[in-house]
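[Automated response] Your request has been received and processed.

Submitted sequence:
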Amino acid sequence: MAARAMVRRTGLPDDIANAVAFLVSSESGFITAQTLTVDGGRMDYIAHA
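Generated structure:
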């Protein structure tokens, strides 16, 4: 799996937790109606491979 990710590693629980922490922070206050994919670029890499 790691070989198919752009970042060349598998995800960790902290990767998801960091994304959630950002979304609930004031820094994301102007973001609306978006999908945040936390996958290390895997889906984009597979789609273009």
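Summary generated for your ticket: The first helix runs from residue 13 to 23. The chain has a mean pLDDT of 86.
If you did not submit this request, please reply to this message.
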